[in-house]
DNA sequence: GTGAAAGCGCTAACAG
DNA sequence: CTGTTAGCGCTTTCAC
């Protein structure tokens, strides 16, 4: 059961009676090498089953052609869509991906960042966890001039680039729509207001209320982890309210659905008694009855744009210091869950 | 904008007037090093922002402590659950993960395998794409004695280990249940019969039919990619059948739901006209109305078991040649979509 | 066109 | 307990 010996450029050089330098050049398809020698080298490499040693190479050239990606969770429709977008761009540009999830924990996020850093990724793409408070674990990257780009869950006012949607406006439009449908007591279910996406949505919601002279009530803000279960719990809270609210804006579809299911079970009619609007345009929004009104979220594009941007940084197309914020277009998709007016 | 120089053990050794060997030992927390020197070294390392160079280390020790994972898709509930399980075990054992998706393409799967191989993963965990025909891209691993473990989408009769459920039995139970509920014309929607999971389910379905003296009809086998859209298309096919079938066994919940939605829209009553059973116990099975009967699939456990097994191989706990097949328990969860008998 | 040689940062004998 | 030293496999000057 002896491990087969790895083939190196030395083996090839030996057998061909040439120097390793020539082999190295030939393998990189350096035009300076004689065509015939090159051919011989390629053939022998193939025959011997040679594979380049990344470590030796990286050790030498100090690059890895690898991009790190840290997401809060892998198992959401939105995130997997984003990753597909990232992968598309990265692959076509010859970059590999290391993907890791923080499971919404600042602790795990820090660890992942450290792993990425030690793996010497050329750049980092990240969407923050719920409970990340400080960005100190990214300082190591900026110190080394390793570009970091945030997407979706970003932090404003710092020295990295951001890719996101206009959450405030999206929530504003969603809330306005509910008000137009006659809602006056609108609950907002969301996650930790530490994160830009949730603060922004909250602000958009408040702005819509204010513009329509509706007072915001503290008890109408329900904060959880936006899981299906959190939706169920929120439903319990809502059912205890007196009077019952007549509209619910939820910061993600999944949670909205958990909430709707519970309310339906309790005999609440949607949208007649309570209207619903979610976020993300998750496919499940078309499964629930009634179909869920939601904000269409350009996940795939967000992934592509973030990756493209990062790679531009790496190629020096952009200066590393030109940080910016890229805002992608989102839109309200109106479905049955919020249509209370006679059609 | 000069890149800060990387700190190496040489820098630490220089400043402390000791040898690099001692620094190297101290950093590994080798008990042989004097406690005081160790302390000094740790402090200076911290202060200087030293980070170990993985490449130099890997180049030297010929291991990476990294496990490769290739899945057909990241964006399914099942797969993300499996990955969570893998991650749990891998992290606690000090392994890193490189995750990649084949997008159900044999071509991309080959490329991913090559990347993994060149990244010198210590071991590989893989679930095959729909259209993978040959396993030649894994030979490079076995040649180098790099353990490869298949999960869920496996290939029988080869020299690697497998982790899966008893698909044949699961489909048998599901079909039997429908027959007991009075179904006699049962359609089976599935994916490419190249993959074990789908052949096995098909065979379980056939066995249940045979045992109950129901003839299998070719036209009752609908093959697609098991997406929501494939479900919609299958619904069209079903609606054209005369007489209409009275039961549908679908190889995944997502596709089942696409099909149910279309049929409902066409006025078909579920389960009265047509009963449904899916596979996976995806959360969406509890959103659809009526709730979907399904096979509960131990994704998290599957990930844990596969990773644990791989790591045992790596630690030499198991001989690399002791390949085996681990079968996890699954069960039928009966919900409204298949209950046709008076309750 | 090709080769010699230095060195990327680290680990692990071996010697003291 | 500490130091010396020889590579791991590769890229890249600098010669020729």
Structural category of chain A: alpha/beta
Oligomer: homodimer
Cα end-to-end separation of chain A: 75 Å
Considering the protein shown, what is the CATH homologous superfamily of the largest domain in chain A? Response regulator
Which CATH class of the largest domain in chain A is shown? Alpha Beta
Question: Unreliable segments of chain A (pLDDT under 50, ≥5 consecutive)?
Answer: none
Estimate the helix proportion of chain A, in percent: 40-55%
Using the 3D structure, state the CATH architecture of the largest domain in chain A.
Answer: 3-Layer(aba) Sandwich
Task: Please tell me the overall pLDDT of chain A.
Answer: 92
Short synopsis of the structure:
Chain A is an alpha/beta fold. Chain A has helices at residues 9-16, 20-27, 35-48, 54-61, 77-92, 106-118, 139-143, 167-180, 196-211, 228-239, 253-265, 299-315, and strands spanning 66-71, 96-101, 123-126, 148-151, 161-165, 186-190, 221-223, 247-250, 275-280, 293-296, 325-328, 331-333. Chain A has 3 domains: 9-52, lambda repressor-like DNA-binding domains (434 Repressor (Amino-terminal Domain)), CATH 1.10.260; 64-164 and 299-329, 3-Layer(aba) Sandwich (Rossmann fold); 167-297 and 332-338, 3-Layer(aba) Sandwich (Rossmann fold), CATH 3.40.50.2300.
Describe this entry's structure for a reader.
The structure is a homodimer of 343-residue chains. With 343 residues, chain A is an alpha/beta fold. Chain A folds into three domains: 9-52, 434 Repressor (Amino-terminal Domain) (Orthogonal Bundle), CATH 1.10.260; 64-164 and 299-329, 3-Layer(aba) Sandwich (Rossmann fold), CATH 3.40.50.2300; 167-297 and 332-338, Rossmann fold. In chain A, 42% of the residues lie in helices and 16% in strands. In chain A, helix 7 links the parallel strand 3 and strand 4 (148-151). The longest helix of chain A has 17 residues, at 299-315. The model of chain A has no long low-confidence stretch (mean pLDDT 92). The first copy, chain A, binds a DNA duplex (16 and 16 nucleotides) through residues 6, 8-10, 18-22, 24-25, 28, 32-34, 37, 52-53, 55-62.
């Amino acid at each position: 059961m002896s491990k087969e010996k790895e083939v190196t450029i030395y083996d090839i050089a030996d057998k061909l009676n040439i120097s390793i330098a020539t082999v190295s050049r030939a393998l990189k398809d350096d035009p300076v090498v004689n065509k015939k020698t090159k051919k011989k080298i390629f053939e022998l490499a193939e025959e011997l089953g040679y594979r380049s040693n990344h470590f030796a190479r990286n050790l030498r050239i100090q690059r890895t052609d690898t991009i790190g990606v840290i997401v809060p969770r892998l198992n959401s429709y939105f995130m997997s869509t984003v990753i597909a977008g990232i992968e598309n761009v990265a692959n076509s540009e010859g970059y590999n991906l290391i993907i890791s999830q923080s499971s919404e924990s600042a602790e795990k996020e820090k660890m992942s960042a450290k792993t990425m850093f030690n793996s010497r990724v050329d750049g980092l793409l990240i969407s923050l966890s719920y409970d990340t408070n400080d960005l100190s674990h990214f300082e190591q990257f900026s110190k080394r001039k390793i570009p970091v780009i945030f997407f979706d869950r970003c932090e404003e006012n710092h020295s990295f680039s951001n890719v996101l949607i206009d959450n405030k406006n999206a929530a504003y439009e969603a809330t306005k729509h509910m008000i137009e449908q006659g809602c006056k007591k609108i609950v907002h279910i969301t996650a930790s207001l530490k994160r830009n996406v949730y603060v922004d949505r909250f602000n958009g919601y408040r702005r819509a209320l204010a513009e329509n002279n509706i007072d915001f009530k503290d008890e109408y803000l329900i904060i959880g982890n936006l899981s299906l279960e959190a939706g169920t719990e929120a439903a319990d809270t809502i059912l205890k309210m007196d009077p019952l609210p007549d509209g619910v804006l939820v910061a993600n579809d999944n949670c909205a659905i958990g909430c709707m299911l519970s309310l339906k079970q309790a005999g609440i009619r949607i949208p007649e008694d309570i209207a619903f609007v979610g976020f993300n345009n998750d496919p499940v929004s078309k499964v629930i009855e009634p179909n869920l009104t939601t904000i269409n979220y350009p996940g795939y594009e967000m992934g592509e744009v973030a990756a493209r941007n990062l790679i531009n940084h790496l190629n020096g197309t952009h200066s590393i210091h030109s940080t910016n914020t890229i805002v992608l277009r989102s839109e309200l998709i109106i479905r049955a869950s919020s249509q209370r007016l006679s059609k």
